[in-house]
Fold this protein.
Amino acid sequence: MGRFQPYLLFGAAIVLPLILSNGGFVNFLADAGAFVLLALGLNIVIGFAGLLDLGYAAFFAIGSYTFAMLASPQFGIHIPFWVMLFVASGVAALFGILLGAPTLRLRGDYLAIVTLGFGEIVPQTFLNLSQWTGGPNGIGSLDQPSIFGYRFGFQALPYYYLILALIAVAVLAANNLRASRLGRAWMAVREDELAAAHAGINTTTTKLAAFAIGASFSGLAGCAYASKLQLVSPDQFGFNVSVAVLSMLVLGGMGNIPGVIVGSLVISSLDRFILPQLTNFMHNFGVQIDLTNSRFLIYGIILVMTMLFRPEGLIPSRQRRSELRAGKDAAVAEQTLYTETVL
Amino acid sequence: MALLQLENVTQRFGGLVAVDQLDFSIEAGSIVAMIGPNGAGKSTVFNLITGIYAPSTGRIVFDGRTISGMKTSSIAAGGIARTFQNIRLFAFMSALDNVMTGEHARMHANVLDSLLHTPAQRAEERRVRARAFELLRYVNLEHVAEQYASNLSYGMQRRLEIARALAGEPKLLLLDEPAAGMNSTEKSELVELIRRIRELGVTVFLIEHDMRLVKQISERITVLDHGEKIAEGTPDVVCADPKVIEAYLGAPA
């Protein structure tokens, strides 16, 4: 990717809604943007540090509910939105550490199972703590952000720019982290935990940092998404959200920031545009199938197809492509090694 | 005073005594070897020193501090680096990144520095990168700095592992069968490299099966059999020891 390409794309994202003055489309872009934020956060946990987290939606829920409880008529507390961005990501990060701490000895499948459980427990807790969270009805009438006296209101456009700005921050943060002492430590832990420890890397704090920072991104997403929607309820944060975000990473290219963004945009547009349009299209021909009801079947098919035909994702990192090709080439390499060392 | 001292160290795995009341010490600035038949407990001794296991009994003192029971990463940061019997590089990181990772414990950037790329962080990155290049030159690998570790030849991977270990500026370097799988040219290069490492002021402790190499390079040899020390001394003394010959070749009929 060229050096200026990210800036060009960012510029295009700024003018895009001004050209397409279609409110529905801007609304879609704002929602898709929230999922880009989530995907960028999960990418730190899975893509960088290699910790398979299947309950990431839990942190999204924690971020959203933190905002909802502290910026709504629920308790009559109205902390300004911009402060809540920090508070919610801080709270999400704290829960990232709370989940991370007892699970650090677990790897791979075992970690996935525990995070899966956590992802189920959190929305269930919000559902049952009805005296604080409004139970199944959730919390409504959330505060809207305002800046220099301008209230965001109910239009999607200001939220779109808010989320775009948060994405820019998240991309910068993820990019900086990747090329740093901590980023190398994450990669080292992912590649070989024992060797990493022998290089003087404290694997415990390194993994906790991945959980905390990954979770903090979803705190940002939670604030923006909840304030845009004006509502949080437990059913927004189910296992399907965790799976959708994971699909975004797998499809786009795990570990690679542009790939993750593309992956989340593809999945979001599939969800909001392509499937409904395709359903309409088929209805016109008298085929009565509602594809939007089978979205998880379709995600599943996409995941399987990706793993079969392009396991490194649409826009992979150099690293991940090599890792996945390595399996295929291992037999060849072994033969070469043999010839080199013996002959 | 000895740099490393094992005092009456025993390691049991269930009923198996892998290392049995081992006592020995390594003087600073020396090159010493540990030999013994397969399964004698040599690698277990390394694993005890680097904190993978905490000894069942006894203690290990390094540089005046008791290190037995400490975390591996703290022991590494305290000045003990190692290579592995089966090479354990970060396969899909560049040779340069492998060595830079080895400098982790010598770096100071915290999470916030890493997040914001503060001027201090950038300066440190530049310094660490320059030093990593220097180390790659030192083991003659600077021409493959950007290649993935997994793409390097076997001999290169062995050298890269040593460069990564040296990146932490260790006082003691543990080499676990560094010559395994090497041809004679590579072995003589290795001998030369180990001597150069000692000249840096690093104490070298190696496990090796190649007796020619061991005799050529080490000042003292410790022989382990069934987890027990059966001989210790200069190469000539150890190789003439009947107990050593018996351990390797069996008792005379």
Remarks:
- Chain A has 14 helices and six strands.
